[in-house]
Amino acid sequence: MKEIKAIKNIRDSFTTKQVKYGGYAALITVAVIVGLILVNLLVGQFSLQVDMTSTRLFSLSEQTIQVLNNIKTPVKFYGLWRPGEENQSVMPVINLYLAKNRNISLEVIDPDRNPGFVARYDKDKKGISRGSLIVEGEKGFKLIGPYDMYDLSQSQQGGMSITGISVERRITSALLFAGTGNTPVVYEITGHGEIPLADLGLQDTIERENLSLKSLNLLTSAIPTDASVLILNTPKRDLTSSEADRLLDYLENGGRLLVLADYSIGDPTNLNKVLASYGIALEYGIVVETDSNYMINVPFSVIPDMADHDITKPMMEKTKTPVLLQGAIAIKELDTKRRSVEVKPLMTSSPRSYLRTDLNENSANKVASDISGPLTLGVAVMDPSWIQGNETQARIVVLGCGNLLPIAVQLGVDTNRDVFMNGLIWLEDRPESISLRSKSLFLLPMRLTLVQIIIFGVLFILVIPLAFFTTGFVTWLKRRHL
């Protein structure tokens, strides 16, 4: 009987409030744990990531996605790494390409164990460095060296430091080449005191965009049939009449021209003859800026307003360093021009600026001969403005600052270089590549105002701890009376 009574007591103990509430709590705890396990298993089947970096380091741009959507044939990535030594800065970006298009695949090749494989892609017999990436499609292949994937700058100690990652730009450019097998040729015009682009470090930048750079003297040579774009970079002398005629013939057949104009050219009669055919002209003088919001230190260093255009959109982001122009000249749109011509401003000065046309005038204030602002400092021209099918279209970009690229080199203003490169790519009619610039690795510190510091201090030091304490205290009181 005592054993039966003991069993009865055990059975009755399960009917008490304490056991009931404890059982409910245990069941709820088990249910939550099982639910969390199931959610984790489900989430693990998807690649859910949120890129919260200011420069979108771990995301592909819309332009790259457009390129990937058009890839219908197999493309192979070959990573020349030893197994287990894959580049951890490059692999996350490559994985994004693999996830977006099933026609793209990756194979890691150990160059030390497969010298014959590497030799197939060493066309120049210069050797291929370990850490390189090969992008191969049906039309050809492109080699991306290990140092081509980064932007490097010389540090104060004399060494090189990485300032940005350009993996996406390199890979997308390689995909374009692998899909076409063609490298468009860009010619820089010489013979007028121009600054060679190679001296400004631009040759490598241009070639990395799947473009080939060559020089052209219009006095001695006709414009080659393979000329994709002509560049006139800061001429110190005007064109001759015969050179102007050659340029006009080239543009009439759908040519593309990029001009960086400098005030030192004087009154460029023949160059303006070419530009006037498309509704624009250079105005001799130097732009003087009097609005402190549009200048740096001196009135001749102008920070222009950027207009809404494919060329300038990337520079309009708040995180971008502003474009800086020194010794800029103005570009005017002519009242008389063909109806088919469309002129779009790219950069303008403030309403308080003016163009000093008399460079012998030393007055610090505006004089009667000065031209009032706002002044146009860059334009993009199309003729005709709208095309269908295979109709040819002439395009011209004129940037009114001969120091645009030297400033980029000497002061490290990368946006100046971006304006030039975006203009070149727009002339090439490759909108998918315009925004593909290197992604900076510079981390800007968080800056908080005094009010923000007080708000966050009260929130994290007082409000949140008090909320946890109150919740715990209320829960304790309820359980005390169970």
Report strand %. Answer: 15-25%
Q: Mean pLDDT, rounded to whole units?
A: 81
Give the quaternary arrangement of the chains.
single chain
Using the alpha-carbon principal axes, give the shape.
extended
Overall number of strands: 23
Biggest β-sheet: strands ordered side by side in the sheet:
8-7-9-10-22-21-18-15
Fraction of residues in helix = 25-40%
The structure class reads alpha+beta
Residue ranges: pLDDT <50 for 5 or more in a row? Answer: 440-444
The fold-level CATH name of the largest domain is Rossmann fold
Q: Label the CATH architecture of the largest domain.
A: 3-Layer(aba) Sandwich
Summarize the main sheet: 8 strands, mixed
Straight-line distance between termini? 33 Å
Alpha plus pi helix count: 12
Report the radius of gyration as a whole number of Å: 32 Å
CATH domain class of the largest domain: Alpha Beta
**Number of structurally distinct domains:** 3
What does this structure look like?
This protein has 482 residues and is an alpha+beta fold. Helix content is 33%, strand content 22%. It contains twelve helices and 23 strands. The longest helix has 31 residues, at 450-480. The two termini are 33 Å apart. Mean pLDDT is 81; it is low at 440-444.
Quick recap of the structure?
The chain has 482 residues and is an alpha+beta fold.
Q: Main traits of this protein?
A:
about 475 residues; alpha+beta; Glutaredoxin; Rossmann fold; four-stranded mixed β-sheet; 12 helices; about 35% helix
Layout of helices and strands:
Blueprint: H1 2-13, H2 17-43, H3 62-69, E1 75-80, H4 91-100, E2 104-109, H5 115-120, E3 133-137, E4 140-144, E5 150-154, E6 160-165, H6 167-180, E7 185-189, H7 202-208, E8 212-216, E9 227-233, H8 241-252, E10 256-260, H9 269-276, E11 280-283, E12 286-288, E13 295-296, E14 298-302, E15 305-306, E16 325-326, E17 330-333, E18 342-348, E19 354-356, E20 371-372, E21 376-383, E22 394-399, H10 404-411, H11 414-427, E23 439-440, H12 450-480
Parallel strand pairs: 1-2, 7-8, 7-9, 9-10, 10-22
Antiparallel strand pairs: 1-3, 3-4, 5-6, 6-23, 11-17, 12-19, 13-14, 14-16, 15-18, 18-21, 19-20, 21-22
